[in-house]
Amino acid sequence: MSDTSRDIVLRRIRESLRQPSPLSARPDFSAPLHPRPAATDDLAVAFAQSFVRVGGVFFFCETAEHFYDQLFAYKQEKGLENLYVWEPELKKLLHDGNIGFQSDETNFLEHADASLTTCEALVARTGSVLVAAATGSGRRLSIYPDQHLVLARTSQIVTDIGDGLKLLQEKYGADKLPSMVSLTTGPSRTADIEKTLVLGAHGPRSIVLFLLDDAPAATT
């Protein structure tokens, strides 16, 4: 049986995360400074590499059921008893998968172990997650909890930051952008105090991305 396109993408992502990208022996000064990936599959691989490089935890999900399995296992591994989810789409998705979560703000300030949100776009160049306050998660779920979990689709991956901002303008209108737009690149970190790197000082200590493949199935 021949591999499907999903099998190929998943294998390429695994291989790219296992091996560092080779360095060119000599620079090609005639080539573009930032060559653009030629296909969506290449964007997924490029994003995975960039996201892990800046300290993110990455999971590739072939189906919704695969997402449920990986999210459940991650919750068990990290002992996450309080996963806050406020977006209606995500609530329905987790309910269908029998995944426990906190659907309101009960004890949020005291017990915000983790949050699960969607995002506006994923930036392959920098490994960044573009979030906005226009969703049901508002401003707080991507900033306050110790761990920020994100569910995104492969169709949301763009090459550059400018491409992500263009998507926002097309979705909301240039004069009606959300009140808060943020690019999250890796976990929150600072070295302001005695040059010692501290994670989680100004935001989540870790960012975890579940990338759900929504590419059309290959035809034979």
Overall description:
InterPro entries: FTHF_cligase-like_sf (IPR024185), LUD_dom (IPR003741), NagB/RpiA_transferase-like (IPR037171). It comes from Hymenobacter perfusus. This is LUD domain-containing protein. Residues 109-211 form the LUD domain. α1 runs parallel beside α2 (40-53). 31% of the residues lie in helices and 20% in strands. It has a single domain, classed as 3-Layer(aba) Sandwich (Rossmann fold). β9 (189-190) and β10 (198-199) form a beta hairpin. The strands form 3 sheets. Strands 1-11-6-3-2 form a 5-stranded parallel beta sheet, sandwiched between helices. Strands 7-4-5-8 form a 4-stranded mixed beta sheet. The chain has 220 residues and is α/β, with parallel strands linked by helices. Residues 195-200 have low confidence and may be disordered.
Helices and strands, with pairings:
Layout: H1 5-18, H2 40-53, E1 57-61, H3 64-78, E2 83-84, H4 88-96, H5 108-111, E3 114-117, E4 121-123, E5 128-132, E6 147-153, E7 157-158, H6 161-172, E8 181-184, E9 189-190, E10 198-199, E11 206-212
Parallel strand pairs: 1-11, 2-3, 3-6, 4-7, 6-11
Antiparallel strand pairs: 4-5, 5-8, 9-10
Helix pairs in contact: 1-2
In short:
This protein has helices at 5-18, 40-53, 64-78, 88-96, 108-111, 161-172, and strands at 57-61, 83-84, 114-117, 121-123, 128-132, 147-153, 157-158, 181-184, 189-190, 198-199, 206-212. By secondary structure, it is α/β, with parallel strands linked by helices.
